[in-house]
Design goal:
Elements (H helix, E strand, L loop, with lengths): L7 H7 L5 E4 L7 H11 L5 E5 L10 E2 L3 H15 E2 L4 E8 L2 E11 L8 E2 L2 E6 L2 E4 L2 H9 L1
Parallel strand pairs: 1-2
Antiparallel strand pairs: 2-6, 3-6, 4-7, 5-6, 7-8, 8-9
Helix pairs in contact: 2-3
Length: 144
């Protein structure tokens, strides 16, 4: 994927990194994903969420019938909980061995007006996860 400078196969071998994250599926509570989207928007260069891949890099896929629902839930959650609303888009890749499943990729663009917040908290990527930012990390975000 051009956004992170690796192919999907390279990402599967390397495992999760600050610039991309694997998700088997969309959790029931979408606020967890919203924190990830916001954290990636606060990161230099943004980031990528890949749905249908386990934390261990196993490709499971998202059922094609669920694709629109997953996209809509992510979009609505980000619009309702993030301030300002981050810019992001979706791509999906068909799986050759699983005809009814795809990998959904959510490409999150870097937020031009930092910091982005979720429920009045600032999140950043720390290793392979979103974490609340401390005072020093907030200063770095604001000052660039």
């Amino acid at each position: 994927l051009k956004q992170v400078g690796h192919t999907l196969n390279e990402m599967l071998v390397l495992g999760e990194r600050p610039e991309y994250d694997f998700k088997v599926q969309l959790p029931e509570r979408t606020d967890a994903i919203t924190k990830e989207v916001c954290a990636m928007a606060n990161s230099k260069g943004g980031g990528v969420l890949l749905f249908g891949i386990s934390d261990e890099g196993e490709v499971i896929g998202i059922h094609t019938d669920d694709l629109d629902t997953v996209k809509l839930r992510i979009t609505n959650s980000a619009r309702n909980l993030c301030e300002p609303i981050p810019s992001f888009g979706f791509h999906s890749f068909e799986l050759s061995d699983l005809s009814d499943r795809v990998i959904l990729v959510c490409v999150v663009n870097e937020q031009p007006r930092k910091p982005g917040l979720v429920r009045h908290r600032i999140y950043i990527r720390s290793g392979p996860s979103a974490q609340p930012a401390d005072a020093e990390e907030i200063r770095k975000l604001v000052l660039g």
